[in-house]
Amino acid sequence: MSLRSAVAHRNLLYLLSLKELRTRYKKSVLGWAWSLLNPLTQMAIFSVIFLYVFKAEPPTGDPSGIKNFPLYFLSGALPFNFFSISVGVAIGSVQGGAGLIKKVQFPHEHLVFSVIVAQFVTLLIELVVLTVALLIAGNMVLPWLPSLLFILGMMALFTTGVALALSAANVFYHDVNYLWGILSQILFYATPIIYNPATIEVSALRWVANYGPTGSFITAIHNVVYDLRMPGTGRLVQLFVMSFGTFFVGSWVFNKLSPRFAEEM
Amino acid sequence: MTDLALEVDHLTKTFRLHHEKANSIKQLVAGKGRNRYNDFVALNDVSFEVKEGEVFGVIGHNGSGKSTLLKCMAGILQPNSGSVRVHKRMSALLELGAGFHPELSGRDNVFLNAAILGMTRRDIAARFDDIVEFSGLQSFIDSPVKTYSSGMYVRLAFAVAINVDPRLLIIDEILAVGDVTFQQRCLEKFVEFRNEGRTIVLVTHAMNTVKDMCDRAIWLSHGVITGEGDPSELVEQYTEQMLGNLSRNADGSVRRGSGEIQITSVELFVNGGDTPVKRFRTGDSIQLRLRYHTEKSIPRPVFAITIEQLGGSTVTAPCTRDVGIIPESLNGDGVVDIALADVPLLPGTFDVHTAITDFNRSHIYDNLHLALRFDVMTGHPYEFGGVVTLKPGWRID
Description:
The structure holds two protein chains of two kinds.
Chain A: H1 2-8, H2 10-24, H3 33-53, H4 69-96, H5 98-101, H6 109-136, H7 145-172, H8 175-190, H9 203-211, H10 213-227, H11 233-257, H12 261-264
Helix pairs in contact in A: 2-6, 3-4, 4-6, 4-7, 4-8, 4-10, 6-7, 7-8, 7-10, 7-11, 9-10, 10-11
Chain B: E1 4-18, H1 25-30, E2 37-51, E3 55-59, H2 66-73, E4 81-86, E5 90-93, H3 106-116, H4 121-135, H5 150-162, E6 168-172, H6 180-195, E7 199-203, H7 207-213, E8 216-221, E9 224-229, H8 231-242, E10 247-248, E11 254-256, E12 261-270, E13 279-281, E14 286-294, E15 298-299, E16 302-309, E17 314-316, E18 329-330, E19 333-340, E20 348-357, E21 364-377
Parallel strand pairs in B: 3-7, 3-8, 5-6, 6-7, 13-21
Antiparallel strand pairs in B: 1-2, 1-4, 8-9, 10-11, 11-21, 12-14, 14-19, 15-18, 16-17, 16-20, 20-21
Helix pairs in contact in B: 3-4, 3-5, 4-5, 7-8
């Protein structure tokens, strides 16, 4: 089982994650600033479009009362990017690990785990910046950080599950890699990041934004950092079941396929 | 009963060779979900055991299934049927430095590579100094490995691999890397491992290594074991089969090579005598006389002889290039004399092989295996054991 392997090989996991982090911004002048520049640019673009082109009303935090589109955007986009980038990088990491997989016996899932850990560390750094911004905007988010971490933990589990399944499938059919590029775009727009789900009039679309896999996570995160309230119990149960379910299915698929990696690569 | 280190039990591995591999979903769908393929049997019902403390060789030509067997033993490939049981802590060296990251420092790579090979952090920390010392890269250890030469890279990788402290070491051809000094150190390390009673499985083309190092060997051919047992005999059989153009002579010698120039006879003379003999005593001076014949002019030939102890260990293997005696060309018939003064060989039976090659020693004109067999009888000095005497000057105060 994958979790047990993660614990048993925690040293390998630690060193592989460290490698991910250390080698990411080698040879770049701005280094880690890049990890923030990307979402900030996104934020600027979407804020202009949302506020000035579409002249839309930013969502109002309930009960916090905050009304700030850039912060609404960032609190959704940062966790979503964690999810979509992690899966994309994990797919490449398993494919790129061919040299290792063909020559050394080691638990392959750590190629995926290490990506998730490294991306999660990046997310946490980004969230520190977001927290400061929220505090400046008058949203007293500090008491809600433990709840945020709890939701993010589940999201990391969910992300790991998706990454395990897709990175394993990609070894056999490289289409998965390209498919993910498209799928993650669809998911981005199906998730309430650049819009307020309450304003959607078509009920099916509103349901997807609220309860779709990523939509539900982002809504819960909006609840704790933007609205400053706990998500509903139903949503928490949904997230809990979904994250563990996805993780176990993903692990199962990966364990099923990984013995054939060396042969297939 | 000795413990087993490794058991390979009825191992079969087939590969599916796709005529046109569907690597995308579209191809899979367009091909009506069907793929044309052949099954290729890489290993067919292979069984053997390796005892603890044994040095075990695996030989075979390219494509014989050696690498597949190795990967199955290392747990990289899953067999279709049969099993591999590993009873000792194993380290498989299929490629040195697999997983090194060029941007990371030598130090970081040591930790990462050792973790991939299954070491805990405490083990690595405890052995880090040994690893660096063995690699000889103390002053480079904090530089990124992309700045290393290929030799340095391999040295560091080998140092890590060897310090995993395996009880069972599986090695694939890696003796062939690095410079001579490094190869020598690897060899020393293997001998040290062997003497410590560790088990080594060696997959190699280097027949001399198999003969010198291994206690037992198997010969793989087209996925099945065609021979098992004494390495010297096995290597002999293997070499004979490998050399398609060899011819066996009436006197038991075996000739191969392109044949433009050939050795026609090899004779042995003792102490300036002029009748050929087959035996002499320790301490005698001898002369080996090779006669050659060519049909056309051969540019810059190199003559070489190998004197082997019965059983296969090479005692000496001089050639004319070593001493810079290179005729511009040879034509017709002639004689090559090799004088050996005060021969220090101790009593035993020895074989002489001869070879004529081009200057680069890559093209073999003529190779006469078992050209001459001679016996050495007791002479002066006399020693009970060993192959040669170094004429020791003893003194006890």
